[in-house]
Every structure is written in structure tokens, then in C-alpha cells.
């Protein structure tokens, strides 16, 4: 008799985690919710006089909207379709969305537009330097505002214990930081090597190439990377990959 695939999911403990759990339930899997990220707002606001302003996450959009940020003639850029959709939901126009939803893609899209321009980058404290360095190399004047810090919840780590015990069939990493925080939680328990071994016996999904590279650099083999940086695609592919391997 087949049993349900146990799938660790590391999204923040808000609607993103609830939606992830609901999706995994609908796929016939057993969700193992273990939030590896918590948001701590800094209270900072982006400048409103830039030529271009870049938002890189749903969380960032919600924070600036709650703060009443309304830039004047600034052209607003989203790092991807998901961020753009949230921006529009909050009444912002979106002028630029790159074809490749990444810092590299955004730099490539803006490179010819920003020489001499003032560019505001509003994001978390773990934003990639690829974006700011690339924009500066293109000749723009970059100002970065840290809207929030991403920290590891102190109670996280159930999934690391399960991985170390061989009790996970899949794990879904949605950022490089979720990989790092998972390993930190495992190390706190003295189980880092065992947890990595357990993941390597399971199906590991990474939401994009930067996340895959982080995981593989730390000894975690990645089995699934969806074509688009989309959680539903990630979950569906990982559950499908893991399901045939788990039977009683």
C-alpha cells in the first residue's frame, strides 16, 4: 500500500505557508511545515525621488504600501510576475518586469536604460549584490533601502530532525536563505551531516538556480528545479518525483 509522501516546506508562517500546506494536501502529500524565515521590518522607507525603484518581493511591496509610500514620476520595477501582481494589487503601476525573474535578468533589462539614472533598490537585508553591483556597473547611481531583515525562527528545525532520521521523502527550498537556515537548525541539534545525508536520500526541490547553487555548494543534491520560479510548479514536480519511490 502506498503511503503519503512527507514533504518539508520552509515558507514564512503566514498565508504563504498556509497556501503551501493546502497545495501539498491537494497533491496527496503529507506537509511538514517548518518555517525557516521570519520577517522583522526595519521601519525604513524607500526614497521617492529616484528615476527607477526596484521591489524584489511580496513582503517588500506590502511594507512600503502599509507605510504609504507613493513615489512621484519614478518608474517602478518588479523582479518577477509574482511581485508585479502584488504591486498592482496595492495600486502601483509596474513599468518593468524582466523576462528572466532574477537579479541578473533585471540588470540585463535595465542596463541600457539606467546610465546616469538614480535607482532605488528596496528589499531585505539578504539581497544579492548581483543586482546593485550590476546596476552600478551599468552607470547608475544606486541607493539601497533595507525594508526588513530575514531571521530564522528559534523553534525551526523539526524537518532537520526528520531528515536526519530518514523520515522525509522531499524538501522544498524556496531561497538560498532557507537552505542556510535549515543547515543552521540541523547544526544546532548536532545533526548537520545526518540531515544532509537524509536530504540526499530524498527528493530535493529548489525554486531557482541561485537556490540550487547554494544547496549544492553545501553538499545537498538538488533533484528538481522548475522552469519558472513558482512554488506550485516546484511542489508538483517534487511530489511527482518522490511519489514512486515511497511504498510500504
Q: If you had to describe this structure to a student in words, what would you say it looks like?
A:
The protein is of the alpha/beta class and 248 residues long. The protein has 10 helices and 9 strands. It has helices at 15-26, 58-66, 81-89, 103-110, 129-137, 158-164, 176-188, 192-200, 209-217, 231-242, and strands at residues 6-9, 30-33, 38-41, 52-55, 75-78, 118-124, 141-151, 170-173, 203-206. The strands form 2 sheets. A 5-stranded mixed beta sheet has the order 3-7-6-4-5. A 4-stranded parallel beta sheet has the order 2-1-8-9. Helix 4 (103-110) packs parallel to helix 5, helix 7 (176-188) packs across helix 8 (192-200) and helix 7 runs parallel beside helix 9. The chain is elongated.
Quick tags:
39% helix; 5-stranded mixed beta sheet; alpha/beta
Beta-strand content estimate? 15-25%
Shape descriptor: elongated
Radius of gyration: 19 Å
User: How many angstroms does the end-to-end distance come to?
Assistant: 6 Å
SS summary, helix count:
10
Q: Regarding quaternary structure, how should these chains be classified?
A: single chain
Structural class from helices and strands? Answer: alpha/beta
What is the residue-averaged pLDDT? 93
Sheet having the most strands? 5 strands, mixed
Amino acid at each position: 500500500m502506498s503511503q503519503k509522501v512527507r514533504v518539508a516546506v520552509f515558507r514564512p508562517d503566514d498565508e504563504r505557508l498556509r497556501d503551501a500546506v493546502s497545495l501539498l494536501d491537494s497533491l496527496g502529500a503529507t506537509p511538514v511545515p517548518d518555517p525557516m524565515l521570519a520577517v522583522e521590518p526595519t521601519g525604513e522607507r524607500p526614497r521617492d525621488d529616484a528615476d527607477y525603484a526596484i521591489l524584489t518581493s511580496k513582503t517588500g511591496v506590502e511594507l512600503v504600501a502599509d507605510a504609504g509610500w507613493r513615489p512621484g514620476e519614478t518608474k517602478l520595477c518588479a523582479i518577477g510576475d509574482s511581485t508585479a501582481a502584488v504591486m498592482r494589487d496595492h495600486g502601483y503601476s509596474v513599468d518593468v518586469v524582466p523576462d528572466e525573474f532574477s537579479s541578473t535578468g533585471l540588470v540585463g533589462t535595465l542596463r541600457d536604460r539606467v546610465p546616469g539614472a538614480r535607482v532605488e533598490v528596496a528589499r531585505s537585508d539578504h539581497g544579492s549584490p548581483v543586482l546593485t553591483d550590476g546596476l552600478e556597473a551599468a552607470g547608475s547611481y544606486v541607493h539601497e533601502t533595507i525594508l526588513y531583515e530575514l531571521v530564522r525562527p528559534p523553534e525551526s528545525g523539526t524537518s532537520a530532525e526528520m531528515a536526519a532520521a530518514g523520515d522525509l521523502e522531499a524538501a522544498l527550498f524556496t531561497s538560498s536563505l532557507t537552505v542556510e537556515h535549515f543547515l543552521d537548525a540541523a547544526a544546532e541539534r548536532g545533526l548537520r551531516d545526518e540531515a544532509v545525508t537524509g536530504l540526499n536520500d530524498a527528493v530535493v526541490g529548489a525554486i531557482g538556480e541561485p537556490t540550487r547553487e547554494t544547496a549544492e555548494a553545501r553538499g545537498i543534491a538538488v533533484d528538481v528545479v522548475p522552469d519558472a520560479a513558482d512554488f506550485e510548479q516546484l511542489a508538483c514536480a517534487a511530489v511527482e518525483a518522490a511519489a514512486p519511490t515511497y511504498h510500504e
